[in-house]
Write a structure and sequence with these properties.
Blueprint lengths: L5 E6 L2 E6 L1 H15 L2 E2 H8 L3 H14 L2 E7 L5 E7 L13 H13 L9
Antiparallel strand pairs: 1-2, 3-5, 4-5
Amino acid sequence: MTAEKYIFVTANGRTQRMRNPIALRADIVALLTREGAMGKRSIINTLSVGQDSVAHALDCLLAEGVVERYRTMSVRNRMDQLWCIAGQSPVKQYVRFNGAETLAAFQRAAAVSPVLGGAL
């Protein structure tokens, strides 16, 4: 049995078409399985879905233990949060990301940065 891609909801006296949350979760899991780790913005753009719907679906999948998130330094030396299937994260997981962890990541990046010349 497959869930329909869209459902109809009544809001403010109008019937509107909305992405089915169950089908959206299945699409996210299939996308992450196929493509590997992705950022939230990439998931939103690939599935052409609203930001709130994807955020809610990812939170539900995280609570169920289906997906996990981790932070890593991007090629542009920014701290990015990526989502992947549970157990496929290349870095050690924490429940919350604290300031010390973020600062340490930036200091490691600055130490090898050609712009700063390893000043730190």
